[in-house]
Every structure is written in structure tokens, then in C-alpha cells.
Amino acid sequence: GDEEALDDLARLLAEVPSPPASEALRARIVLYGHGAEHATDPARRAAYLERMALLYEEGLGEASLAATTYEAVLALDPQRRHAQLGLLRTARRCGDAERYARALLDEARAADPPRRSLRELRAVEALLPSQRSRAVGLLAALLSRDPACMPARALETRLAEEDERWDAVDRSLAARLEHTPPAEQVPVLLARARVQALRLRAPGDALASLRRARELAPNHPAPPRLFLELAEATGGPRALKAALTELAAGAPSPEERGRYLLRAAEIDELVYDDDEAAARAYTEAVACGNIGAGDRLRRVLERRVRAAQGEAQSEALAALRSLAEKGAAGDRLALAFE
């Protein structure tokens, strides 16, 4: 965070004391140590120790000795703020994850709720490399107390992914959705849909997540694209056509509706040889202003008329002309058969 960046910068800018200066600093440390050892008042003893710690930290750059001295101060006065912050700084500098996490947790107990959660999360992150099980337990306790802490939820999801516990990933994403405003849910829904489809092999659940994402963000390109890919991968052309029809029904604009209807009509025509169903879908696409659907509809209508004979041909022509007239291009299409 910003506090850590400032601390690191100050350390880089600090001057290394010359040998005579170091000796003078150590003499002062001995003096304060003597005072602390013989002080009868706990407050005075804590003050002497704090001065020693500050000299170790800022004067000599000996972070480990400074951290140990700050701990001695906090043993006398657990709420001493300068010592708390000093222990945080020096424990982090010397790479003592255990001591650093303990200092964060001690500080968290006295902090307000939002700050407490962030301090606890930093303790979890500090312990993860060396004490993963303990860190995971602390994270679970944090989320039990503050289930809406999104940085902690994101870490929970990541850890479950690293362990390939996909059921846990799905539960974590579901919990994030419960505490995320609707306007910000789409990325989480998309992530959950991928886990459900690719890891849990639950295409029905994935489609439901994508439907919800589509409802929340009708103009977002990802939900419909993934919806169609998943439908086709799991159910073939028939499922793809059903998905296209569903998307067309809820399309936010005539142009988008026309594109979905065009693709659905192509499946009817080219996959199932169902010219009647294809003609209906092409006609609706033309009515939405899809120019490419007009030529395809004309091709289907011509083929239907040629396939019929005699009276049946007349009936087919009349039926198809009537069908075409329901679309915006009905007059133009009817004239083509005059």
C-alpha cells in the first residue's frame, strides 16, 4: 500500500552512518537500555525501549533488533501506536512473515471494520508463502466476519483455482455475486460461466449465468457470444438454433435481432432442409432491416415454387407470397413472382 511504499522510499534515502556515528548511536542505545532495565515505572521503561528501537531502526538500519525491541515495548503497552507501526515496518523489512502477520493482526483488533479487514487480509498474504494452511484458515475467518470484503473474496477464488477445487471456485464466485452491485456483476458472471462449463461440466448452469449477464448488460458482446458457443458445443445445430431464437427474442436492437434470425434461418435451410421454417426466419430478418436476408429469402421462395406442380404450385406460391408480405420487404418479394 501507500504506507509501505513511503516506508521503502524513506529507507532507500536514509544515509549509512559512519563508524564514529555508529559507535555514538550504540552508546545511546546502551544508555537507554540501562534506563529501561532500572526504570520502575512501566511507562518510562516503554519510552526508553521505544527510543532504543527507533535508533536500531533509523540510525543503524538493524530491522531485526528494532522489531524485537518494539515487541518488548508492546509487551508493556499493547496499545502504543508508535510501537505498533514500528513493528510493522521492521518486521516487513527483515522478511519475518510470522512477526509481520502477528503485528498486522494485533493492529486489526483495534481498527475500525473496513481497516480491520484489510489488515487481516495483509496478514493472510504475508503468511501464504510459508504457512498456507494457517493463511487459508485466517481468510475463512475474515470472510465469515466480513462476507462482503471483495479483495478477500478475490483471494479466496484465486486460492481455490490454484488448488483446482472447482466446486469451491464456483461457491466463491457465487458469494461474490451476492455482495456485488448488479451493474458490476457481469465479469463475475462470465468467470463463473467459464468455470461451470469447462471445469464442472455443467452447461445448464453456465447458460443460466450467461442469461443473467445478458439481462444485466444487453449490449455487452461477450455473454451472447459465449452463450452461442456453449449451446453449439453441447447441443449441436439444434441447440444453436434454439439459442439464436432466444437471443433474437431479447435483442436490444432490430439490427442485432436480424443477425440472430439470419443465422437461425441458415440452420433451417442448410442443415435441416426446412425451407418453410427458413422462409419464416428470413422474412423476420428482412423486417428487421437485414439486407443479406432478402437474397436468401428470395432463393428459398423460388425453390419452394419450383418444387411444386400444378395447383399445388399455385397454392405454394400464394402461401409463400402471403408469408413474405408479413415482412417489411413483402411488396418487393411479391413482385418478383409476378
Chain-wise SSE layout:
Elements (H helix, E strand, L loop, with lengths): L1 H12 L5 H20 L3 H19 L2 H14 L4 H13 L3 H13 L3 H15 L4 H14 L4 H13 L3 H13 L7 H14 L3 H14 L5 H28 L4 H18 L3 H13 L3 H17 L2 H16 L4 H6 L3
What does this structure look like?
The chain contains 18 helices and no strands. It starts with a helix and ends with a helix. It has helices at 2-13, 19-38, 42-60, 63-76, 81-93, 97-109, 113-127, 132-145, 150-162, 166-178, 186-199, 203-216, 222-249, 254-271, 275-287, 291-307, 310-325, 330-335. With 338 residues, it is mainly α. The protein is 80% helix and 0% strand.
The helix/strand order is HHHHHHHHHHHHHHHHHH
Structural class: mainly alpha
How much of the sequence lies in strands comes to under 5%
What would you call the shape?
Answer: rod-shaped
Total DSSP E strands: 0
**What ranges have pLDDT less than 50 throughout 5 or more consecutive residues?**
327-338
Main β sheet profile: none
Terminal-residue CA separation = 77 Å
Summarize the amount of helix as a percent range. Answer: over 70%
Indicate the mean pLDDT: 87
Q: Radius of gyration, Cα only, in angstroms?
A: 35 Å
Number of helices: 18
Give a brief outline of the structure.
The chain has 338 residues and is mainly alpha-helical. The protein has helices at 2-13, 19-38, 42-60, 63-76, 81-93, 97-109, 113-127, 132-145, 150-162, 166-178, 186-199, 203-216, 222-249, 254-271, 275-287, 291-307, 310-325, 330-335. The radius of gyration is 35 Å and the shape is rod-shaped.
